[in-house]
Write a structure and sequence with these properties.
Elements lengths: L2 E2 L5 E2 L4 E2 L6 H13 L4 E3 L7 H14 L8 E6 L6 H14 L4 E6 L12 H19 L3 E6 L7 H9 L1
Parallel strand pairs: 3-4, 4-5, 5-6, 6-7
Antiparallel strand pairs: 1-2
Helix pairs in contact: 1-2, 3-4
Length: 165
């Protein structure tokens, strides 16, 4: 059965990850097999540099299996180098545009910021700005659910404070 993620969105319990898939044919072939066996959740990330390949493959494969975009759930993650108001807005907008105007789940991939020490006060500001941008996409329906990734359960409360303070 689908799994709820704290909003009205329901995610399939099994999906396919796309980390390290870089070749167009490989992406196509793997998604072809995944869709043929009923997989309806695709996990990707901006830092995997393959969202455009996944989008291209889905444009061919969804009709092959009589599926629409809404039949497949896309999870993506904001690249740590795109934290901050402007960078995150551009990056998320690019991702959303690849997947027919929305993604089902957008996560902050890592709470740190590329090339900035974690104790630098600017990290907290950039992370907060990114979170606000993600929320703005959620509010207009271009993202269906939001969250954070790569945190241990023991770090969750701290992450919520860092993201939302």
């Amino acid at each position: 059965p689908p799994v709820g993620v704290g909003t009205s969105i329901q995610l399939p319990p099994v999906g396919i990850g796309t980390f390290q898939l870089k070749e167009e044919k490989t992406v196509y072939d793997i998604l072809d097999v995944a869709l043929s066996i009923g997989i309806r959740l695709i996990d990707t990330a901006q830092c995997y540099n393959n969202e455009h390949l996944i989008s291209k493959a889905l444009k061919c494969l969804l009709p092959k299996y009589s599926l629409n975009r809404c039949d497949v759930k896309i999870v993506s993650k904001l690249h740590p180098k795109f934290h901050g108001r402007i960078k995150s807005h551009v990056a998320i907008d690019n991702t959303v545009s690849l997947f027919d105007g929305y993604v089902d789940v957008m996560l902050i991939h890592w709470p740190g910021v590329t090339k900035i020490k974690s104790d630098d006060p600017v990290v907290k500001i950039l992370r907060r700005e990114s979170w606000e941008v993600i929320e703005s996409f959620l509010q207009v329906g271009k993202i269906k659910a939001i969250g954070v990734f790569k945190l241990q359960v023991s770090s969750h409360e701290r992450a919520v404070r860092l993201l939302c303070s």
